[in-house]
TrEMBL record:
Residues 124-406 form the TauD/TfdA-like domain. It comes from the Eukaryota. It holds the Pfam family TauD. Keywords: Oxidoreductase, Signal. Coiled coil: none annotated. It comes from Triparma laevis f. longispina. Residues 1-16 form the signal peptide. One of its GO terms (molecular function) is oxidoreductase activity. The keyword Glycosyltransferase does not apply. This is TauD/TfdA-like domain-containing protein.
Length: 446
């Protein structure tokens, strides 16, 4: 989930910079966006809840201190593996349509499975790992071992998953639930409980995790909070062929933040400010950002925009072309029409690669095909969703009350070239901590 917060203190400045949202629509539409009816998106598959009992927070947050602290030796998130040239879209759609509708593949624990504890995952490692590649996601349901931080780590180690940093560690909203176990808190913040998180992969143009393990320690106490997943291959196979061809040829760029400079500012000062942001601030986000003035036609607006990327990519292992694009989450047109609890500073949008605008009809088609293939998973304490981050997109519905979900990200454990040998860079931690302190400070429902 991409949120980038750009804020500056310029003590000698005679004018102010205001962080406001960017949109690919007209500014009249932007002004009217607050009056739009917000409707919670639907899902194609909605399984029933099961009332699994969890542990107390004191119990589920316990780490096994007899195991080594992973924090200093963590790998950086690996670089994104791009392979998108010369894809035959007709053949790709036909191939995707033949795939079985099994996202996620459900593996439900029996009492005998739970009695085995760690040994179950050691014994079934190859089966679970192969199903993850074959289906894109595996729902480990009703298991007892992963009900705690220590148990979740034991499970992932039994499956031989190699932890790494979040691709947006330096700028994402997540903070560690347990740093020594490389476990991030998911988006549980009360201030964001009424924000619908659309489908996305945990990726940028620059970095992408190979796999993820999403775990529930405490489901939402007053309802909601289903975890959303969808098969990127199925989305590609079902998307309108004309739009698919258009967006594949033109590619996409994602706007992550905007700064409004007074239009009357002398050009030399505008250029200086752009240079400051480009050289001193943008690199700390570990993203390939370009600062562009007035890309949306608004005088004085400086926009932070990711480099051009393909919305379709071949899966690194299987070669299957998949919808590898975060548009369902980031399109401002869609966010304005569903529950959204993100402050304006965190709003995003999606352009074509030439900075052209997607039409409302094109946005609606992305919404239609994405939500048709969503499975809204009801996760109870101990449930885990293993996700192939190149094939399966994920999100989260709104919720009430309190919840506690967490996630670990993983690199390529058996491919040194893909994995890379870059270890954690501690200088990234400062901005991450600052952003999370800001979000913790916000009232529960701002």
């Amino acid at each position: 989930m991409k949120f980038v917060f750009l804020s500056f203190i310029l003590p000698s400045s005679s004018f102010s910079f205001q962080v406001i949202p960017q949109s690919s629509r007209s500014f009249i539409d932007m002004a009217l966006s607050s009056t739009l009816e917000r409707v919670a998106p639907s899902a194609g598959v909605v399984p029933e809840w099961e009332e699994q009992q969890g542990l107390s927070e004191e119990q589920f947050m316990q780490s096994d201190v007899s195991k080594p602290d992973l924090s200093d030796a963590l790998l950086e998130c690996p670089l994104t593996l791009w392979d998108f040239e010369n894809i035959d879209l007709t053949a790709a759609r036909a191939s995707a349509q033949k795939l079985p509708p099994s996202c996620p593949l459900e593996i439900k624990a029996t009492p005998e499975d739970n009695a085995m504890g760690e040994d179950y995952f050691i014994k079934n490692k190859e089966m679970i790992r192969s199903k993850l590649v074959e289906n894109g996601s595996v729902w480990l349901r009703n298991f007892s071992l992963p009900k705690s931080v220590s148990g979740h780590r034991t499970m992932t180690e039994a499956l031989n998953l190699l932890p790494c940093l979040d691709p947006l560690h330096s700028s994402g909203l997540r903070k560690f639930a347990s740093e020594r176990d490389c476990l991030y808190e998911e988006v549980n913040k009360p201030s964001l409980r009424q924000h619908y998180i659309g489908l996305h992969s945990e990726s940028t143009t620059k970095r992408t995790a190979a796999y993820a393990s999403f775990v529930c320690f405490k489901k939402a106490t007053e309802g909601g909070g289903r975890f959303l997943i969808a098969d990127g291959a199925k989305i590609l196979g079902d998307m309108d062929p004309e739009l698919l061809e258009k967006i594949y040829k033109r590619k996409v760029r994602i706007s992550v933040s905007n700064l409004d400079v007074p239009p009357s500012t002398p050009q030399i000062l505008k250029d200086g400010f752009k240079s400051l942001v480009t050289s001193a601030v943008a690199p700390k986000f570990d993203m390939d950002l370009e600062m562009i003035y007035e890309a949306d036609g608004k005088p004085g607006r400086l926009m932070a925009i990711e480099e051009m990327e393909s919305p379709i990519n071949r899966h690194p292992v299987t070669g299957q072309p998949v919808w590898f694009c975060n548009a369902h989450n980031h399109l401002r047109y869609l966010r304005d029409r569903r529950p959204c609890g993100v402050p304006e500073v965190g709003m995003t949008d999606v352009f074509f690669g030439d900075l052209g605008h997607l039409s409302p009809e094109e946005c609606d088609e992305i919404k239609r095909v994405s939500e048709k293939h969503i499975t809204a998973v009801p996760m109870s304490p101990g449930d885990v969703l293993l996700v192939d981050n190149y094939r399966t997109l994920h999100g989260r519905d709104v919720f009430e009350g309190e919840r506690y979900h967490a996630v670990s990200w993983f690199s390529w454990e058996d491919n040194e070239e893909w994995r890379g040998n870059e270890l954690r860079m501690r200088e990234k931690d400062g901005l991450n901590g600052l952003v999370n302190k800001y979000m913790d400070w916000l009232p529960k429902d701002f």
